[in-house]
Amino acid sequence: MQFSTTDTRIGWIGTGVMGQWMCRHLMDHGFQATVTNRTKAKAQPLMDLGAEWKETPEEVAAASDVIFTIVGFPKDVEEVYLGESGILKGARPGAVVVDMTTTSPSLAQTIYKEAASKDVRAVDAPVSGGDVGARNAALSIMVGGDKDTVKALTPLFEIMGKQLVHQGPAGSGQHTKMCNQIVIAGTMIGMCESLLYGEKAGLDLEVMLSSITGGAAACWSLDNLAPRILKGEFDTGFFVEHFVKDMGIALEEARRMNLALPGLALVNQLYQAVMAHGGSRMGTQALMRALKQLNNAI
Amino acid sequence: MQFSTTDTRIGWIGTGVMGQWMCRHLMDHGFQATVTNRTKAKAQPLMDLGAEWKETPEEVAAASDVIFTIVGFPKDVEEVYLGESGILKGARPGAVVVDMTTTSPSLAQTIYKEAASKDVRAVDAPVSGGDVGARNAALSIMVGGDKDTVKALTPLFEIMGKQLVHQGPAGSGQHTKMCNQIVIAGTMIGMCESLLYGEKAGLDLEVMLSSITGGAAACWSLDNLAPRILKGEFDTGFFVEHFVKDMGIALEEARRMNLALPGLALVNQLYQAVMAHGGSRMGTQALMRALKQLNNAI
After folding, report:
1. ipTM entry
2. Contact B180 A194 (CB under 8 A)
3. A141 beta partners
4. Domain carrying residue B216
5. What's the pTM value of the predicted model, to 2 decimals?
6. What are the protein's UniProt keywords (chains A, B) (predicted)?
């Protein structure tokens, strides 16, 4: 199995803030694309570059050799793959499907099995790096699936990302992304409680940060999100509702595996409070606001 | 106020794994030192280099212009400063005392006030960087106290550390160190739960880490302690009992300030479990063992 710009037609489902850049990089490298999206207007830039529009995932799949998806929530993934007009209705035998949404490892395994029964190969390949990583083709791509399929997809992944790691069988990409999010849950609560403590103790938080960011407390969140909190900038960044989705998936998978993760569970609850206060579309640093509310200090 | 190797005699109380190096750096730069320690044998290397031994903190203080302390727990600091044969019994008017132990900000403020009543100036200056940082004079020093005193001490701190930041009035150094430890509590729970999830999900943890250490989950703990966990190396690193001490101080200060820190409280409880299972003198990565016990997977 080998993909080339002359023989391979790609399908792309989900042309949002991430997908439109990722698809565009493939098109820039010469691939012909067929696309669809819930909101057609968001696919217009790609159509302007020559992408063909189809109304349903089924039709996109029927026209493509490799179909990529990056949509919203697990229920969207389920609909796009297994629904009435889903990919698996239209995909031809021998086709490859690649879900790059962060979604449930169990769902990835279900899709893998359903696809296999139709001689379609499925790979899960969630990413980290956000919209900046998507735009700059600098994503980290965590891949689960059969070795041969992953190998064949490698040149395509390399167009979209900087770091590509095959993590194991179907679902392993998603599990790895969950590991990523679980660490972040920890760094977020640590960072926010530290800032809250420092503020309450009367420290100059910028000066405080200058003492701690270079040592054993060093973390990406402290470097990148603490400055936003200090500026009162809560509207930018990775949406709370997406992080809550991810933590929910991790906790549900942990439940299936009979695994208690008390830290993750607590952070998830505090983010539920951020949601309850209308913070769904704020950046994850809005956890600070829930902690302040909790302490009646807003 | 200015200190020089010709006019200034330093005192050093606490010649353990950190203190013996810090004192030695000052001696290497030409300062005459008077020392004491609970276990005399540990001060022998400094005496071999010319340090004078005294039996009590009071006697050390009486012989010194600047007295440094780095001992164990807050009760030790209290004893060393305010006890029967404590520093403040012996310190001469005009002397400067510098506590580099990680201890309670409130205690630092008490010492500051008690010292001031005897015309002695007190500074709190806890450090991060561990024994390696102490040996290589690469510590981060977080300083609380009066501006003039801190300024006068700066040349001495620069002999011991790489990064020196004056954080504010007495207690601010300790508060800053607490901020540091609160972040670490978060990175530790995030890292350990991530590894536990990954292991249970059947991932190859080294491969998993290769996907997540370069992005938004990046943190010192993941880089430095996750590899130890993978090797089953729990006996090295920052002692659990010292981290539990630090978290206890932070939680007690938070209580005084009417501040709820649910994440820190949870991590503290899990480390109490590590202690209950005999892990006091293990490295902080032993949190992984408590989480495994919790999940009955050891």
Report:
1. 0.96
2. yes
3. A127, A164
4. 175-296
5. 0.96
6. NAD, Oxidoreductase
